[in-house]
Amino acid sequence: MSAESTAPAVTMDAIVALAKRRGFVFQSSEIYGGLNGFFDYGPLGSELKKNIRDCWWNDMVRRRDDVVGIESSIIMHPKVWEASGHVAGFTDPLVDCKVSKQRYRADQLFFSPVVVDGQTVGYVSALESEKTAADLQAAAESFKRKKAIQGALAPVAPRDFTEAKPEEIPLIPSPATGEPGSLTEPRAFNMMFETHVGPMRDSSAVAYLRPETAQGMFVDFKNVVDTGRVKLPFGIAQIGKSFRNEITPRNFIFRSREFEQMEMEYFISEDADWDTCHKEWIEWCRQWLISVGLPETHLSLYAHPKEKLAFYSKGTVDIMFRYPFGVQELWGIAARGNYDLTQHANASGKPMEYFDEASKKKFVPHVIEPAVGVDRIFLAVLCAGYAEEDVKDDKGNVEKRTVLRLSPRIAPVKVAVLPLLKNKDALTARAKELYRKLQRRYAVFYDEAGAIGRRYRRQDEIGTPWCVTIDFETIEKDGTFTLRERDSMTQKRITEADLFALLEAQVF
Ligand code: ATP
């Protein structure tokens, strides 16, 4: 068999359709029309997500001597979020369209003056996408044509709505209506979900669903130091749900309102070389993404400009991934100084200092924070792995196959066990025996329904790296099986011992 890719670039429509068709991701509360920004993970999706989490936990916590894990509560004392700055500042700039009642994030709403022969004759707007500038240019050309304005149109100069001058705001058209005059000035919208703890519903009972897991590590810092036998430099890691009332959840699971984070706070001495440590963590994270199957070619680094950093931040670098909708943040690695521990020390009155035995010095440690979203990795591996191919069988017949090239480390099913024929007891009995044995260590799938080629296709589509077929040679000759490899579609004979050795080497 040979394969040729027929799809030049994967589309989000194809990913969303596959996710639904094969039970990776569903809309939350779908039978009630869904709830925007919330998703459910189906049978294969929950396996894939668990594998991403487990790989991260194993590599980040269990296989390192300098990182320990915790699991802190989702609802924490509200003072945590005052001290961290989230109550005052965890906001996005919100713009309302008074006519359509649509809401936009100001930094995702772009506009440009339409300039003809050096004169501004109006404004155009477009929502952020991978072709914002082209959309604005097309809108400017259409504006000029409709108004029958003669003269030379200047190229558009896109700015986002947070940069609009007060006198420009009434002139910028709403993306919903196409008409100016209905957009409000941006106002700060706090993204934390509020709830109440206990039977009272007044302001004294207000609490928040955490918008990040990181504060758990800062608040528990002293407890871990006192009980965890840790010495600087060391990290505290956590995986868990976070909640943000995003103004415009979008791009499927890329930006949702309930999502899962994997964060680690790496504490270092106040006079450690933070820059080198920061760089080492950026590279560690990049290599980790490659180890779960993301192609290096889809990854890039973005260093936040100094003038956009918070005053306490020494530097932030994002690992970006090329999604079908553009290059977007996947993993942020921030050097945060000792801001967070100092804030909590001041607000709680409890010292957050660390006593260094070697130097006999007491200080508040500094921190490097790699923070990544499980759902964004999930989406990245689907997008990078998805392909539609024309495959030729041995007789030269061409057919289509959809294949998901997932790393064996994270694939939801590692091996499919297939008896060649359904109605031959000797074949099915041996297949079931192998299936049960594999099942004790790995997620495996038993399938006896349909032609063998069709069964291979079903596994290709869900990313199963290997299929094992039990055939007559297995039961009548040397006991070996046919091992069929997903990506190359090559087949070879393999013993049971070698199959287990292969899995041991590839699934870790
Ligand atoms: P963005 O700029 O995309 O909103 P952020 O810089 O606010 O992200 P962080 O606060 O640094 O994100 O969160 C750390 C990580 O958590 C992000 O790199 C991303 O992988 C993930 N994440 C953040 N917000 C969301 C969301 N709404 N949905 C899914 N994942 C998210």
List keywords for this structure.
single chain, Rossmann fold, binds adenosine-5'-triphosphate, globular, 30% helix, five-stranded mixed sheet, BirA Bifunctional Protein, domain 2, alpha+beta, 3 domains, seven-stranded mixed sheet, 508 residues
Please provide a written account of the structure:
It is built from 14 helices and 27 strands. With 508 residues, it is an alpha+beta fold. The chain folds into 3 domains: 2-90 and 194-382, 2-Layer Sandwich (BirA Bifunctional Protein, domain 2); 91-189, no CATH class; 413-506, 3-Layer(aba) Sandwich (Rossmann fold), CATH 3.40.50. A 7-stranded mixed beta sheet has the order 4-13-14-20-17-16-15. A 5-stranded mixed beta sheet has the order 24-23-25-26-27, sandwiched between helices. Strands 1-21-22 form a 3-stranded antiparallel beta sheet. The longest helix is centred in the N-terminal third of the chain and has 20 residues, at 43-62. The protein is globular. The model has no long low-confidence stretch (mean pLDDT 95). Adenosine-5'-triphosphate binds at residues 212, 244, 246, 255-256, 259, 261, 329-332, 371-373, 375-376.
User: Widest sheet: strand order?
Assistant: 4-13-14-20-17-16-15
Helix content: 25-40%
Which percent band covers the strand fraction? 25-35%
How many helices does DSSP assign? Answer: 14
Quaternary:
single chain
